[in-house]
């Protein structure tokens, strides 16, 4: 308050990490567990051209939908803030929400072992877009009924994709997933700088 | 107090929820600037002495100027105003034009693999403290 420092007008640098997965896998729970503020909610209007439904004579009907997302923030230092965006439930809408996807450092995809299929679409999406991601197996109450290898096989996961098991209600579990993502990004950055000969 | 929407409230009926936010933007549905993102950080420029500030500002504009005395991302501003992101961007675009706020674009994404390692290390250090 009352700062006279005129250089401080540009604000901190912001980076963004997505927390994805199907409905009910614990996205907002994880965002809330690691965020320094209670998760905030914001919404956006997305317009979808309805195509592929028979032949509409070249006419594409447009549908506008309101999509809501929850997000949180982690202030790393006065110059650097991490925003965590839990992706909205309706996948077909956020997949085309360019502002949400563009510029993300990477993503955490949460899966629930009882309903692995609800997270397939998110994994496919990040793979096809070339967006780095890690997988978090949300073990509710600390119990997992499947082994890491069973989950990897069921998800047909590339061996290079980190996978961690944990209860995302605990901030440590969310933190470990985010650190694993940053480690993956750092390894890639180094790999880009030192191309194999 | 005379507000520009006064003349629009002819029948007093509830506007459709998709329409109402755009009355705030005077009917504009697309931001003039396409460089604002969800995490573009907005910071209020404190007006110089003697310079009349905020003459053309609507209440929503004023709320943004007030909030961004502490820098805030576009998504945070939209959440605080309880307005859709696209509407919020239009209002922020106005304020940029008025010289009332400055913006800082986010870091480029990780798809090219060329992220700044120092920034990644700083993020990692910050996360470890959680």
From TrEMBL, chain A:
Pfam family, one: ATP_bind_1
UniProt xrefs under InterPro entries: Gliding_Motility_GTPase, Gpn, P-loop_NTPase
Species assigned in the record: Streptomyces pini
Coiled-coil regions listed: none
Alphabetized UniProt keyword annotations: GTP-binding, Hydrolase, Nucleotide-binding
Protein family according to the UniProt entry: Belongs to the GPN-loop GTPase family.
Name of the protein described by the UniProt record: Signal recognition particle receptor subunit beta, a GTPase
GO molecular function, one term: hydrolase activity
TrEMBL record, chain B:
Region (Disordered): 1-26
InterPro entries membership: DUF742
Protein name per UniProt: DUF742 domain-containing protein
Organism for this UniProt entry: Streptomyces pini
């Amino acid at each position: 308050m009352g700062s006279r420092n005129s250089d401080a007008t540009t604000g901190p640098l912001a980076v963004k990490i997505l927390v994805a997965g199907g409905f009910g896998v614990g996205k907002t729970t994880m965002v809330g567990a690691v965020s320094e503020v209670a998760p905030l909610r914001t919404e956006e209007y997305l317009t979808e051209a309805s195509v592929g439904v028979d032949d509409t004579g070249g006419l594409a009907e447009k549908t506008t939908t309101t999509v809501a997302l929850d997000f949180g923030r982690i202030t790393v230092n006065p110059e650097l803030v991490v925003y965590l965006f839990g992706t909205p439930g309706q996948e077909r809408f956020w997949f085309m929400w360019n502002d949400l996807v563009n510029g993300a450092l990477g993503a955490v995809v949460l899966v629930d072992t009882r309903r692995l299929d609800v997270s397939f679409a998110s994994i496919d999406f990040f793979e096809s877009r070339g967006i780095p991601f890690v997988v978090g197996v949300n073990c509710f109450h600390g119990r997992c009924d499947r082994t890491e290898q069973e989950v990897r096989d069921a998800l047909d996961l590339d061996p290079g994709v980190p996978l961690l098991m944990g209860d995302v209600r605990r901030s440590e579990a969310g933190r470990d997933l985010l650190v694993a993502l940053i480690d993956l990004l750092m390894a890639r950055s180094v790999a880009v700088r030192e191309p194999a000969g | 107090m005379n507000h520009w929407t006064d003349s629009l409230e002819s029948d007093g009926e509830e506007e459709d929820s998709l329409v109402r936010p755009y009355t705030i933007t005077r009917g504009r549905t697309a931001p003039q600037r396409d460089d604002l993102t969800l995490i573009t950080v907005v910071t209020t420029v404190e007006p110089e002495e003697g310079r009349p500030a905020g003459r053309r500002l609507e209440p929503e504009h004023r709320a943004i100027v007030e909030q961004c005395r502490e820098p805030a991302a576009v998504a945070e501003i939209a959440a605080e105003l309880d307005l859709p992101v696209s509407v919020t961007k239009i209002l922020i675009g106005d304020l940029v034009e008025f010289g009332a706020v400055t913006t800082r674009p986010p870091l480029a994404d990780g798809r090219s693999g060329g992220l700044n390692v120092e920034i990644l290390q700083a993020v990692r250090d910050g996360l470890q403290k959680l």
